[in-house]
Amino acid sequence: MTSRNQDLFEQSQQLIPGGVNSPVRAFRSVGGTPVFFKKGLGSRLWDVDGKEYIDYINSWGPMILGHAHPEVVAAVHQAAANSLSFGAPTGLELEMATLINQLIPSMEQVRLNSSGTEATMSAIRTARGFTGRDKIIKFEGCYHGHSDGLLVKAGSGLLTFGEPDSGGVPASIAQHTLTLEYNNTQQLADIFNQMGDEIACVIIEPVVGNMNLILPHMEFLQTLRTLCTRHGAVLIFDEVMTGFRVALGGAQALYGITPDMTTLGKIIGGGLPVGAFGGRKDIMQVLAPLGPVYQAGTLSGNPVAVSAGLTTLKLIQAPGFYDRLAAQTAKLMHGLKQAAQKSGVTFSAQNVGGMFGVYFSDSNPTSFAEMMLTDKKAFNHFFHSMLDAGIYLGPSAFEAGFVSAAHSDADIAETIQAAELAFAAL
Ligand SMILES: *Cc1c(COP(=O)(O)O)cnc(C)c1O
Fold first, then answer.
1. Transmembrane ranges (predicted)?
2. Domain span at 42
3. Residues 224 and 196 in one domain
4. pTM (two decimals)
5. Element holding 40 (H helix, E strand)
6. N vs C: which end of the chain shows fewer Cβ within 10 Å?
7. 143 in catalytic set
8. C-alpha–C-alpha distance, residues 148 and 166, integer Å
């Protein structure tokens, strides 16, 4: 029996490389046929064959209110009726900048664009323009979008700069990027000792959500802040995923560490394409038209996208929103751990705000190297059992999971029940 899903995937592969418009969607890591969707409502999704799922990807974070939230949809309708785009300023952008500044005060000035990739790329250019330095530091396992200078892996030695981590990236660009180990405070201190005054910026996911979930050690983040300040390097928190996800004020509010610049995406668009970068006013003033650093976008601050984002940002400020979100996520993790224990499966899990990580490992990993040691085969079996049971998890052992405000107790209970069977079948 062939399904509509399979048909669509086969046809898509003829016209779209790999059949998908972003690689993880192709299910290469877990194997099998990706699910093609046609509808979402609240915590639920329906695929093109009519099968129903509970969604724990939530478009990789943006759908924090659940799918097709009526107020977000109404805001989009209203904005669309007044034209889809002007390529000129609107009051909505000021409203958005005001709200971002209120929720994340370190973003004294902010500029909108259309994706997380654009936000990080522009933040780095701004930091380089501000400092007059070329070198940047990132961390292994963090993802900051697909711009050339960020698709870089560590070189062979500690002090060697990076090598391209993707075809098509010139070595001459990768060589300006140094990739260090996450949570390795000593290594960070050594590098700053050697060349701190040549570093334009350090970009980091303050809570990592792109090698599954990894939490920062407090001492690591504090040392990072101290070293950047001492050496005049710009500290960029890439909160494209963690912004409005781990807490209302992002990871910087949760950990009490103030970066010089912040990048946002995902939730600030409420499911439409919006990115943002901002930070200290003295840094942001180097941007054109005020200063020499060029950055632009035809659809930047698009009124329809910004309306969806604004409405989302207003609704997540409801009293108790994050307490409930974190409680539901914790309930899910607790249930999964108990279910694994019943079947004697080596398993561990953690959560922060509405974000979670599950690992086939006896403890929660703290670095990329530790993450690589988790049992990928066990995850892949688990993933497919859950998918069959109508539970949609990220299709890779190296992706985090997301809970939305629409996830009910019944959703959580149904998920745990499915997991009991999935663990038992391992
Ligand atoms: C998703 C993500 C990006 C890239 O955002 P896009 O909108 O996919 O370009 C950058 N940084 C982090 C931390 C992300 O999670």
1. none
2. 4-64+320-425
3. yes
4. 0.98
5. strand 37-41
6. N
7. yes
8. 8
